Amino acid sequence: MNILVLGSGGREHTFAWKIAQSNQCTNLYVAPGNSGTSAIATNLDLSVTDFKAIKDAVIANDIELVVVGPEDPLVQGVHDFFLEDQDLKNVAVIGPQKAAAELEGSKEFAKEFMMRHNIPTAAYQSFTKDNVEEGYKFLETLNAPYVLKADGLAAGKGVLILNDLDEAKEELSNMLVNAKFGNASAKVVIEEFLDGIELSCFVLTDGKDYKILPTAKDYKRIGEGDTGLNTGGMGAVSPVPFATDEFLSKMENQIVKPTVEGLQKDNLPYVGFIFIGLIKVGDDPKVIEYNVRMGDPETEVVLPRLKTELVTIFKAMANGTLADVAIDIDERAATTIMLVSGGYPEAYEKGKEITGLEKIEDSIVFHAGAKDKDGKVVTSGGRVMAVTSYGDTYQEAIKKSYQNIENLHFDKMYYRKDIGFDL
Ligand code: AMP
Ligand code: GLY
To answer: Percentage of the chain surpassing pLDDT 70?
Structure first.
């Protein structure tokens, strides 16, 4: 079958890399893709939220399966668009419909879902500009630090954690009254602060049954020792050493099962990935957030550990037969280190030539913000490439990635040298 992957990051290169290994895939397309995907698939120059352009590409290239990488098209209803179109309704789409994508699209929707289905999460209340005074009063009942979350999508920037009550009140007002995050902060969820270590759980579902993929931990801050600004993610490790069997069993029973059952009870069709951001508080998992897609750079360590053909899994998800598929996982650890443009996540330059790719041995380089230009590979984004390695231990895998990175170069290249430091 012909397959289209929507997106252009390291996650989508990893999807393409895995799909390209399957003889069930005849022609593979990635839209818009990057310099990594152009080497193994055909890039199509279109925007992931231009549904009309996607339709034309699907018809022109006889595509039968579409894998949606990022959240934006899902929250905007790309899956519904396919179902409602006579020419597209038989094309399989991996990614939930708009109603369920609200689990990521609206923090309040996600909190209400968790409350309804008894899924452990932080206590919360939500506010709009009409009851901002009540928001201040609610903050006064909490202990520092204070967690403020813009309800809508804010490109990963919509969560503020503040130590000072007056500052928290001021930011609440900035979000609600001054539209700090535009329309995304017209509503704000104020949450109890949870103290613990974070990890990510990835679930595949066809809406009835589910399969759990290996856990991963990502490193979100730009600076070593988890300091400085938040980024999309600077590295990842899988499996997560502190996720013991006992913890994983709690995670499945208290969180994964009620989530998939909750989707059914609420009549929310879901064929896709559920990425559950968890925090381990004491010995117990609590949900920080839902995402309706895979994580990036977590995909760059989770999919390399998946031995089962991804195309087999996607077909089963689309056909509602996921229960019949066995998921085989590589016992080895996988780690990835993200190379970023100097200045990221603030302003940075683009168009820098990347050299040394041919010298990589025993690691896999997934391209992210990188593109082809005049026969060269040049930077085109903040997060540029993810260098993934396997190892019998995560320490061995990390060492391999760092050794290989020595070969790679671009002007102002930066990466964290302490991935895995806290494990
Ligand atoms: P989110 O976008 O909801 O994942 O939040 C971004 C980051 O803020 C998370 O990865 C956590 O590090 C932190 N965070 C969010 N909610 C809480 C909470 N209730 N307690 C502690 N940290 C939180
Ligand atoms: N790495 C976190 C995310 O993809 O949201």
So the answer is: 100
